[in-house]
Amino acid sequence: MLFPMTPPLTAAARQAALLLLLCGLVLPAAAGTITYDIQAYIDGRSLLIFSGYTLQWHNLSFTVPGKHDGHNDPTIIIASANSSTVTAYWYPYWPDGETGDQYSYENTSLNPPFHGYAYTGITLTAVQARGSLTIYQMPGAGNNYTLILDFDDEAVGGSAWYRGIVTVGTFDPEAIPEPGTFFLTGAGALLVFLYRRLNR
Q1: Percent share of the chain, pLDDT over 90
Q2: What is the pLDDT of residue 82?
Q3: Which of 45, 74, 97, 166 has the fewest CB atoms lying closer than 10 Å?
Q4: pLDDT at 84 > cutoff 50
């Protein structure tokens, strides 16, 4: 049984097919901005740790956040991205006590998550702080891309509400298709092109 020979592709056709395949393999990341509006009732000095989907308090001195003088106040997180806002009221659990050097259990529901490997810029605006509210650690490869905020009320007696807004310039990993999707997109476009070329 004889099969008809496929007409050779012209140089222009070969270039077009290659470009279609490359377009399917390489797509730019989607740029965006995420903001985290953090509000907490601070007594001494406390560090707030961001890593992926998790938040954790590391209290360094005096009473843990939200608990001084009989209070039971949450840590409030108002997160915004892509015109959507999520508000969370987090009541941390402190397994080893509520004064001095203590770690809270992790909150594993940060939404949207903090992708420290993907940021293009991070700023902190101290909206309300009678002491100091600063960035203690910027994310990097050496610290597992973890951001840490420093809430410091040690120099003043009593406790007070602190509020800071973290702005993260980042690309959204969820908006980038998996490599297999890239390949299928390019391969599909190439097959359509070849089918139409051979059936002209």
Answers
A1: 64
A2: 83
A3: 97
A4: yes
Q: Which residue has the higher pLDDT, 117 or 40?
A: 40
Q: How far apart are CA 75 and CA 73, in angstroms?
A: 7
Distances (CA, A) of 167 to 48, 116, 127: 15, 12, 13
